[in-house]
Design brief:
Layout: H1 3-10, E1 16-21, E2 26-35, E3 38-47, E4 53-62, E5 65-71, E6 81-82, E7 93-94, E8 103-109, E9 115-125, E10 130-140, E11 146-148, E12 157-161, E13 179-185, E14 188-191, H2 197-218, H3 222-238, H4 242-252, H5 258-271, H6 276-279, H7 284-297, H8 312-328, E15 330-331, E16 344-345, H9 362-375, H10 389-401
Antiparallel strand pairs: 1-2, 2-3, 3-4, 4-5, 6-8, 7-8, 8-9, 9-10, 11-12, 12-13, 13-14, 15-16
Helix pairs in contact: 2-3, 3-4, 7-8, 8-9, 9-10
The structure holds calcium ion (CA) (2 copies).
One calcium ion binds next to loops.
Amino acid sequence: MNTSSLLTCGISALISALFLLTPEKAHATIHRAEFQNVEAEISYDQEENSFRALNLRLKIVREGKILFNQLVPRRSEEFDRPYFRENNPSSWVQDLDGDSEPEIILTLFTGGAHCCFYSLIYRYDPASETYTYLTHDWGDGAAIPILKDLDGDGIIEFDSMDSRFAYAFTAYANSGFPPQIWQYDSDGLREVTTLFPEEVYSHATQLWKYYQQRKQEYGDDPSNVRGFLGAYLATKYLLGESEDGWQRIEQVYQHDDRRSFFSELRTFLQEMGYMTEARKSIPSEAIDDWTDHFFYSVNPQLSERKIRPDETEYIQEWNAIQRVMNELLVTENHGCQSRLGHSVGLASYDSLSRDGVNLESQDLDRVADAIFYARNPQLGDRRIQPGETRLASEWLRIRRGVSRLHPCD
Ligand SMILES: [Ca+2]
Ligand SMILES: [Ca+2]
């Protein structure tokens, strides 16, 4: 019998909840589930008219022997309680990693409007004949996973969502979430979202549909649509279709704040790691062209002539900029032809005057740092101290030299 068919019969798992009145007017709540040779029982005392859940205990019986019977370690020993997703047929006792040994997945809710959730995953340790656990945080309720073998290979996927998008661009009710898919092994949960392009694609389609529905039902106000557009774009990055995603968003989002919204969106997606995949496909000519661009911006005296092999300081400065470009450049399509002629650029730009001191792009700060430290190797990587005004104004002069107000300027 293969693992997936074992799994199917195992899902005849028994789940029950019994409510017994104890003398302290506390209800003892018990949940039970079994899978193959493992039976687990969760119990806790629920006081009347109270959110407290006391004495939360997990008992695990394997092959008829009680191997584990302990209080569950919780962030709050009083309030965190087991959570079972409504209408979710997936059992909390399952073989997650396809080794025919069931694990126990206990998800806890801390209380609150929709946050927070975390799971304790218990694994059998044959050497000590007991169970060890690890913890995974889901954050917001939107991320509570559905456990399902999406591709039928016997390894369970945790089908979740990226809850860091809650409140990112708008109120919670208008927030959209990109998909996140995880798999379990003895080291913990590993994110594998991009290995499931069909699921990601269907999320992208769904998010675009939500965006259109909201626009139709509630109007095209920025606060109604920003959350869904942001999550849609993140999903397009997961699919390796960021150019198409940007094109659509720039086409449909015509509000006055579009420039600042796009800039906010780029920075957020970069910080959340969505641009890593896009970065892999950056051609080396684009990296060199961008390096040249910044190098000659801060060295106008060279009139873009080639660096000679004996000009070691210039070579070091150029190499320092190139290292930063390697890390920062992302695939972009801003709907305009960049002067450099590549669909590749930085994620964040200055939004205010190039001549003022109000410089806002973290990417451009890093370019300025690279040049500054290449020119001042005696500093190592120490920061400029208060009072070092000559160094401070040198940094600022470099920073102004690399300022860009728009990807197409
Ligand atoms: Ca297992
Ligand atoms: Ca699978």
